[in-house]
Design a protein that fits this description.
There is one protein chain. This protein is α/β, with parallel strands linked by helices. It has twelve helices and twelve strands. Strands 8-7-6-9-10-11-12 form a seven-stranded parallel β-sheet, with helices on both faces. Strands 2-1-3-4-5 form a five-stranded parallel β-sheet. 39% of the residues are buried. This is 2-hydroxyacid dehydrogenase. InterPro entries: D-iso_2-hydroxyacid_DH_PdxB, D-isomer_DH_NAD-bd, NAD(P)-bd_dom_sf.
């Protein structure tokens, strides 16, 4: 079998080569080509276009795949595998995606050609879970705000939550979605002595954590709410004004998942009006944020530039993890 792997600025050619060594050791001929961008930001712009509009939204340079006519397996992280790529690889049998989502693959067209698509679930789960807990601490304890003020030589003590600064130990944490990432978050927070509630229609009862039957029940009880659901037509605007109105005034909401899970306008209004205490957000409808974004004007929010899953460990380990999963699946 021949494999074409498409590297990018996050998983570079040498990292991809090393990570796919197990494929070579099992008789697969691996060629790695580099999808080049002038900067990380340009790659992220392409990725955002693909996530919002599908695999056909970005044209992949033909030189990346036209020299691999015999490839039966294509491995990609961000590079789009769309109709043009699939049509140019007549022997293609498998597409491997080095992340949990498969937005950059034209899945329906691949299936119509009998091509199987494999993802790499959980590849950055720990990175996102650790970051999520970090945002909880940063927002509730004013870590980012205090740092920013002190860099300006301001010894700040007047925070939006100054009268109710909490410890997260003993608090009720509500997790919306209870897949791999959320379960790691729950595990980490158990060490703080938190009570974990979760809402997920597709996950059964799990010992040590409490499943609730409705989203409304979760948001009305939780002190901190963290989103971990997949974005779909069913979950678009999953959290909106109706849910903010049910939350405690001391509630903090965290989002390290897709931006579309929260109605951004409703979130901004809830923060501006003091309907909830605070938020920490890593993903946005417009990335990068526009210069006139209202997020910049809010003092009760911690914002980060879509970086929860971006660790060296997550990127470097993914090709190796995929190789192991792929070889098991095709045996």
């Amino acid at each position: 079998m021949k494999c074409l792997a498409i590297a990018d600025l996050f998983i570079k050619k040498n990292t991809m080569d090393l990570g796919l060594e197990k494929l070579r050791n099992n008789g697969i001929d691996v060629t790695v080509n580099q999808w080049t961008h002038s900067s990380i930001e340009k790659l992220q712009e392409d990725n955002l276009q693909i996530e919002q509009h599908g695999s056909e939204a970005v044209i992949l340079p033909v030189e990346l795949y036209t020299s691999a006519q015999d490839a039966e397996l294509v491995v990609t992280q961000f590079a789009p595998i769309n109709k043009a790529v699939i049509d140019s690889l007549p022997k293609l049998k498998y597409i491997g995606v080095l992340r949990g989502g498969i937005e950059n693959i034209n899945v329906e067209y691949a299936k119509s050609k009998g091509i199987k698509v494999f993802n790499t679930p959980g590849r950055n789960a720990r990175s996102v879970a650790e970051f999520t807990v970090g945002l909880m601490l940063s927002e509730t304890r004013n870590i980012a705000r205090a740092h920013d003020a002190l860099k300006d030589k301001h010894w700040r003590k007047d925070f939006p939550n100054a009268d109710v600064i909490p410890e997260i130990g003993g608090k009720i944490i509500g997790l919306v979605g209870f897949g791999h990432i959320a379960q790691l978050v729950a595990k980490f927070l158990s060490g703080f002595g938190c009570t974990i509630l979760y809402y997920d229609k597709y996950v059964s009862d799990i010992a040590g954590f409490t499943k609730v039957e409705t989203l409304e029940e979760l948001v009305s009880q939780a002190d901190i709410i963290s989103l971990h659901a997949r974005l779909s037509s069913e979950t678009q605007n999953l959290i909106n004004k109706k849910h903010f109105d049910l939350m405690k005034k001391t509630t903090t909401i965290i989002n390290t998942a897709r931006s579309g899970l929260i109605n951004e306008s409703d979130l901004i209004e809830a923060l501006k009006n003091g309907r909830i205490m605070g938020a920490a957000i890593d993903t946005f409808d417009d990335e990068p944020l526009k210069d006139n974004s209202e997020f910049y004007l809010l003092d009760n929010i911690t914002i980060t530039p879509h970086m929860a899953g971006s660790t060296l460990d997550a990127f470097s380990n993914t090709p190796k993890l995929f190789s192991e999963l792929f070889l098991k699946k095709i045996k």
